[in-house]
Amino acid sequence: MILTALLAAVSLGSTSISTARASSIDAAFLATASFQATAQKPAKTSDSTRSHKARAKKSSKASRSHSAADTVPSRKVPPQPAFTVAPLPNSLLPKNRIVVYYGNPLSKKMGVLGEYPESVMLAKLQQEVHNFQVADPATPVKPGLHLIVSVAQGSPGKNGMYRLRMTDSLIDHWCKLAESKGYIIFLDVQVGHSTVQSELQPLIPYLKRPYVHLALDPEFSMHHGSEGVVPGRKVGVMDAAEINYAIKTLADIVKQNNLPPKVLVIHRYTQKMVTNYREIRPVPEVQVVMNMDGFGPPWLKRDSYDAYERMQPVQYTGFKLFYKNDKPMLTREEVVKLKPSPLFITFQ
């Protein structure tokens, strides 16, 4: 994702960031506008993607042999999840499919949230909700927003953490927008050189709201062998212990505030970026979605989904679609026919 084309002053309807604070955020974004452009995202591929590309160089027929209509998984029998948790009656999953628009409103290049005016973006989201309802009439669709609230940076910043936190006013605006529409919202964290523990603390007041959920992006977690590396120079790593910390934090919030279960989304597009996946422990209060990230041709995305979602199950699965970088983008009907059928859909 390229952090460019930022607004000099950001107006958020009835709520706005102060000019001074907005300018400091924009300057921080602009100072690192190109770092993600040269990172993994533009060639966002999984381990299997790179091997497939290498194989394709040896034989162009090999890549063409993957049919765009093929939704058949490998014949390998997937293992059972390490932990099986029955959903509580008021859980979102598996009785719904969640469809969200992803991004940050300060950048037109990070996803749909910043690419269009709010009214246009919301109308497009509602169309996608309708599209998925048509593709799978048996599964109700729950719309949502997916807001990156801690954004990895190519420079250390004043705190040396290589991440920039969004202002309370920006987060509050988007949370209230989601609430006003009857949507849910995911607050997405790219920790950089910070930690999951540190980045969750300022989000707890928002996570106490029943419609606010959490997402973690291991790609920009520069730990476990990536210490000292600038985010974007190398794919980051997140371990099950950090994910379990987030699960416990969310579970405590749910129990202490008598809330419906939370959903925790973990983005993934390589095997190594999530370690010890079988130690990830969902609980009744927190439903875990492993979200297949990354863009590419349909056959490659199916192979990655099969390798990292079907063959390495945790609890529920998700799938990200890129309007501009998936060539071609899988149809909604093709997505719901994936095995297992993903119940969390992200559009970027």
Structure description:
The protein is an alpha/beta fold and 348 residues long. The protein has a single domain, classed as TIM Barrel (Alpha-Beta Barrel). It contains eleven helices and 13 strands. An eight-stranded parallel beta barrel has the order 3-4-6-7-9-11-12-13, surrounded by four helices. A two-stranded antiparallel ribbon has the order 1-2. A two-stranded parallel ribbon has the order 8-10. Strand 11, helix 10 (298-310) and strand 12 (316-321) form a beta-alpha-beta unit. Residues 1-71 have low confidence and may be disordered.
Quick tags:
about 350 residues; alpha/beta; TIM Barrel; 8-stranded parallel β-barrel; two-stranded antiparallel ribbon; 11 helices; about 30% helix; disordered N terminus
In short:
By secondary structure, this protein is α/β, with parallel strands linked by helices. Helix content is 32%, strand content 19%.
The CATH class name reads: Alpha Beta
> What is the total tally of β strands?
13
Topology order in helix (H) and strand (E) letters: EEHHHEHHEEHEHHEEHEEEHEHE
Specify the helix fraction band: 25-40%
What characteristic shape results from the CA principal axes? Answer: globular
Q: Tell me about the biggest sheet?
A: 8 strands, parallel, barrel
Extract low-pLDDT stretches.
1-71
Integer average pLDDT: 83
Biggest β-sheet: strands ordered side by side in the sheet: 3-4-6-7-9-11-12-13
Going by helix content, strand content and strand pairing, the class is alpha/beta
What count of structural domains? 1
The CATH level-2 architecture is identified as Alpha-Beta Barrel
Rg, Cα atoms, Å: 19 Å
Q: What oligomeric state is this?
A: single chain
Named CATH topology: TIM Barrel
- Please, how many helices? 11
